[in-house]
Specification:
The structure holds two protein chains of two kinds.
Chain A: H1 2-12, H2 22-32, H3 36-56, E1 59-60, E2 70-71, H4 75-82, H5 84-115, H6 122-134, H7 137-148, H8 155-166, H9 177-180, H10 182-207, H11 211-219, H12 224-252, H13 256-262, H14 271-280, H15 285-319
Antiparallel strand pairs in A: 1-2
Helix pairs in contact in A: 3-15, 4-15, 5-10, 5-12, 6-10, 7-10, 7-13, 10-12, 10-13, 12-15, 14-15
Chain B: H1 3-35, H2 39-42, H3 56-61, H4 71-101, H5 107-118, H6 122-136, H7 142-165, H8 170-178, H9 183-194, H10 196-212, H11 215-220, H12 228-233, H13 243-263, H14 265-272
Classes of the chains: A mainly alpha, B mainly alpha.
Chain lengths: ~325, ~280
């Protein structure tokens, strides 16, 4: 983040114009003026608090012991980096994000290919498919936990009972979904919410394929697989990358599902949840801040790569 | 492919699409159906699909026994979502103008700076925001949520508005400038009308994300400024059955987003792709 900060200062600062005449300088500021309110607002609200996080991370500050607040150097970082819980939550965050983004991207691609065809009621099917994305995330998590996963009266086990009864068995399997596969339960719920998102982006990508090229491929005798592999997939690359990036930004920060479905138990605590807990329940401000800084550094590393991908993506668009 | 085979394969894939569509829709359908069941019928195994319908769950949502009205949290959510969306547009449209129409030097760097702040995890800034809000007496104040949701959505809004404004024909802007129109007038009379669909898409996405947000709301609001998602979690009780009323509350709180999203599906696509899809 700070690396990007300096880039901005370069842009909004006097940009080496001090020796230039007053007129172009004024013109440059006139250009910048409409940008400034948004930029200043964003820096004040999202960047300055981070500076505070950085300072607090070097302090011993537990809200339960207000008379013992003092600077402790890197002690919090030592605790954080050796804390097995936090390390576990880093792994969990990566697992959840990668699984959710990849599975929903793949499912979204399949659904987009289906919806790209002409059939009766296509609009209605699209509407049904969008619905999961439009359920408020907390509501979706509650719905899955209580109405679907519940081992006693959830819909999944209810349907198992119905199916087993249909075959004359009185002894249907009634798994406790969340206890048996806590991470899988969270992943399934998030995949259900994010697949429509991926599907919408990829469907828009499919529908922007150049019609002439597709026709030419058919005329030249290319089979459906060849057309997909050599025409559709390269064209969809930008859309796949965009979906993956945006999906990652949101899934990495997921709090609602972990908080609702497992309350971070059974090894599902991801970083946002762990930091929330350190801060909200343990009241250890110093440690929570140090953990926050670690997260931010990790995010910067990942984001640098991700941003490089997007920038190449949008440069391609600019060339069109 | 012969026309006949073509038609048959279309029929098969159409059926598959219908099947998958219904599969994805079942949880939503189940949520709505359960919300109209009595608590006893909601908690059965095997499920009672044809149980008599009742409004009891919704009566509970409106505070029949607890006396807790859902209106204050709903109004808080509406205030935070609509207020922050308006603020976002007021900040993002001029910013996008300076990035797309009369770009500042190194405008791509600025654009990427906006997006990079979106990658900063919300939790990392949560504690200082909490402490500052505490100092300023802004805890449990809905205006704080308006500001935070605005900051949360601003990077996305700037990206979207940038790609929508890049479509505005330069000739029209030049003509307006020659006629002596100043920037606020140009924005109001030329840019906003032309890019109205893009602005609508931006507003829709910002509204949805603000309406859905829970982490900030959970930590920074309480009895007075609590929003609908926080209120929703209060329906979980450790005693007695609660499935029907939770489903009723979940349906009611998701309804504004469902309606807005269904009504503006194209806008949704435009917005979700940050304006990369027109």
């Amino acid at each position: 983040m700070s690396a990007v900060d300096t880039a901005t200062t370069r842009v909004t600062g006097p940009a080496g114009a001090h020796r230039a005449a007053a007129k172009p300088r004024r013109a440059a500021w006139a250009r910048r003026a409409p940008l400034l309110p948004a930029l200043v607002f964003l820096i004040v609200i999202t960047q300055l608090p981070f500076v505070a996080t950085l300072i607090i991370s070097f302090m011993n500050w537990n809200a339960l012991y207000p008379d013992q607040i003092h600077f402790t150097g890197v002690a919090n970082y030592r605790t954080v980096l050796t804390d097995s819980l936090l390390r576990a939550s880093i792994v969990t965050t990566v697992e959840l994000t990668v699984a959710v983004v990849l599975i929903s991207l793949l499912l979204g691609l399949l659904l987009a290919l289906l919806l790209d065809r002409v059939f009766v009621g296509r609009g209605l099917v699209r509407t049904m498919l969008i619905a999961p994305f439009l359920v408020v995330p907390v509501a979706a998590a509650l719905l899955w936990k209580h109405a679907l996963y519940n081992p006693v009266y959830g819909l999944f086990n209810g349907l198992l009972t119905v199916v087993w009864k249909a075959f004359g068995s009185d002894n249907p399997p009634q798994p406790d979904w969340i206890t048996n596969m806590p991470k899988g339960s969270i992943i399934a719920e998030l995949v259900w919410q994010w697949t429509p998102f991926m599907m919408l982006i990829l469907l828009a990508g499919l529908q922007s394929r150049p019609a002439e090229a597709m026709e030419a491929a058919t005329v030249d005798g290319a089979g459906p697989w060849q057309t997909f592999r050599y025409l559709t997939l390269p064209h969809l690359r930008r859309y796949l990358e965009l979906g993956a990036l945006l999906g990652s930004i949101y899934v990495v920060q997921n709090f609602d599902s972990v908080f609702t479905i497992t309350s971070g138990g059974l090894g599902t605590a991801n970083l946002p949840y762990t930091i929330y807990q350190t801060f909200y329940q343990a009241h250890d401000y110093g440690r929570a801040s140090a953990a926050g800084v670690v997260v931010v550094i990790a995010t910067i590393i990942i984001a640098t790569f991700a941003l490089r991908v997007v920038s190449s993506l949008f440069r391609e668009e600019a060339k069109r | 492919m012969t026309p006949k085979r073509f038609r048959r394969s279309n029929l098969v894939w159409g059926l598959v699409a219908w099947l998958v569509g219904i599969l994805f829709f079942i949880p939503v359908l189940w949520m709505v159906l359960t919300s109209f069941h009595s608590e006893a019928d909601a908690a059965t195994n095997p499920p009672k699909f044809t149980a008599p319908l009742t409004l009891a769950g919704y009566k509970e949502f409106f505070g029949a026994t607890t006396g807790a009205s859902p209106w204050p949290p709903l109004i808080n959510s509406a205030t935070a979502s609509i207020g922050s969306t308006i603020l976002v547009l007021l900040l993002a449209i001029p910013a996008a103008y300076a990035l797309a129409i009369k770009p500042v030097r190194k405008w791509t760097d600025v654009l990427f700076f906006f997006l990079s702040t979106k990658m900063l995890p919300v939790v990392a800034a949560l504690l200082p925001i909490y402490l500052i809000a505490q100092k300023l007496g802004l805890l449990d104040n809905i205006n704080l949520m308006v500001i935070l949701y605005c900051a949360m959505n601003l990077p996305i809004a700037v990206w979207m508005m940038h790609s929508f404004l890049a479509e505005v024909p330069v000739a029209i802007l030049e003509a307006a400038a020659i006629d002596g129109a100043r920037l606020p007038t140009i924005i109001r009379k030329v840019i906003v009308p032309i890019s109205a669909p893009g602005i609508a898409a931006t507003a829709l996405i910002c509204f949805i994300f603000a309406w859905n947000e829970m982490l900030y709301a959970r930590v920074l609001t309480g009895v007075v400024a609590g929003t609908a998602p926080v209120f929703l979690t209060s329906f979980i009780t450790s005693q007695g059955l609660f499935l029907a009323k939770v489903c009723a509350a979940a349906t009611a709180i998701s309804l504004p987003v469902l309606i807005a999203g269904f009504a503006a599906q194209d806008k949704l696509v435009q917005g979700l792709s940050l304006g990369a899809v027109k």
